[in-house]
Automatic annotation (TrEMBL), chain A:
This is DUF881 domain-containing protein. Pfam families: DUF881 (PF05949). Belongs to the UPF0749 family. GO terms for cellular component: plasma membrane. The keyword tRNA-binding does not apply. Residues 1-32 are annotated as: Disordered.
Automatic annotation (TrEMBL), chain B:
InterPro entries: DUF1290 (IPR009709). Keywords: Cell membrane, Membrane, Transmembrane, Transmembrane helix. Pfam families: DUF1290. Belongs to the sbp family. Coiled coil: none annotated. This is DUF1290 domain-containing protein. The keyword Cell membrane applies. The chain crosses the membrane at residues 24-44, 56-74, 80-98. It is found in: Cell membrane. It is a multi-pass membrane protein.
Length: 253, 110
């Protein structure tokens, strides 16, 4: 390898010195080995090399094309694939349930001459939207959260955090103090304390949230979450899951 | 020359027949290809240095590809398949580069 690094000029100078001997060394072109190698020879070994090259070329093309087909799943390992598959299964089950519900509704509507089903459907929807908009009282399982604030350190932002955390955890209906929250609920720091939707909230703050109690309690209690932050401010927080509770406050719409 | 024709013919055949890689081969083919490329470069280098031996070439070509695939297979069985294939690719890549450097020095003297 090291003698290969010798520049071609070296051989030429020595050739020039010996030139008087009458055997002038043929000036080697730099690519001479390449042309020498490319000279076709047909021996058994050459054929074997050709065959192996053929296999290599074939395999390269096959692999490149296989890679082009599905880059996402071909490189995924078994556990990733299992995760994707179970996600898809869950989703398709949920969609199938939706489909069944919608088909039931459709069949009911078609059978229905006097508009009874349509009326029921409309009432059900009115209830759903009323719950979401906060215009009707609600009942169900949920959590009750009490925040005592002896140092008056809890700000509007903390209560907003709590509300957002509850919504993320699937709370359907939330009441803070005696204010029923809706899509446009706001919290402001007033001179006396926190105002929610323009109404003064006297501490201790009492939050009622209807939804899955376990999920909401877990979401509130995560390290660095709402409960930790509030306790860091010197507030006392208790989260009580309830199997059944009533949210009676309503928004006037 | 004949090897070069073989390579081109292989690519053309692959393009014509549009082969699909069988499922059991899919994790091992890329590694085997890298090993084969390494053997290829090694062969060219040996040829340029004048020490090319057909038997060595064929045996190293076949042996290296099978060995590389076997290592990855073993890694898959042990649960370290992806790490081990990365390792194999790194080692073979280093070899390919050193072979390519030797070829370059032979051809261009630099």
């Amino acid at each position: 390898m090291s003698d290969a690094a010798k520049p071609p000029g070296t051989t030429r100078t020595t050739g020039g010195e010996d030139g008087a001997a009458g055997t002038p060394e043929r000036p080697r072109r730099p690519l001479a080995p390449l042309t020498d190698m490319l000279r076709p020879r047909l021996t058994r070994g050459q054929l074997a090399g050709a065959l192996l090259s053929l296999v290599l070329g074939f395999a390269v093309v096959a692999q490149v094309q296989a890679n082009n087909h599905d880059t996402k799943f071909a490189t995924a390992r078994q556990d990733e694939l299992v995760g994707i598959l179970s996600d898809l299964t869950q989703r398709s089950e949920r969609l199938r349930g939706d489909l069944r519900d919608l088909e039931n509704t459709k069949a009911g509507l078609e059978r229905d001459a006097r508009g009874q089903t349509a009326l029921e459907e409309a009432r059900r929807r009115a209830d759903d939207y009323g719950l979401l908009a906060g215009t009707v009282p609600a009942q169900g399982p949920g959590v009750e959260i009490t925040v005592t604030d002896p140092r008056r350190a809890v700000r509007a932002a903390n209560l907003l955090d709590a509300l957002e955390e509850l919504r993320d955890a699937g709370a359907e209906v939330v009441q803070v103090g005696d204010v029923r929250t809706g899509v446009d609920t706001y919290f402001v720091d007033g001179p006396e304390g926190v105002l929610a939707d323009g109404r003064f909230l006297p501490p201790p703050y009492r939050i009622l949230a209807i939804g899955d109690p376990h999920t909401m309690a877990t979401a509130l209690g995560i390290p660095g979450g709402v409960v930790r932050t509030l306790r860091g401010l010197g507030a006392e927080v208790t989260v009580t899951p309830r199997a059944r509770m009533t949210v009676s406050a309503v928004r006037s719409g | 020359m004949v090897a070069l024709i073989g390579l081109v013919a292989g690519v053309v055949l692959g393009l014509v027949f549009q082969p699909t890689v069988p499922l059991w081969l899919q994790p091992y083919l890329p590694i085997a290809i890298v090993a084969a490329l390494d053997a290829m470069f090694g062969g060219v280098r040996a040829r340029l240095e004048g020490v090319f031996d057909e038997k060595t070439f064929v045996v190293s070509f076949v042996g290296n590809t099978i060995l590389a695939a076997l290592i990855v297979f073993l890694g898959d069985q042990l649960g370290v398949g992806s790490q081990l294939s990365t390792g194999v690719v790194v080692v073979l890549g280093v070899r390919i580069f050193s072979n390519a450097a030797a070829i370059r020095r032979k051809l261009f003297g630099a």
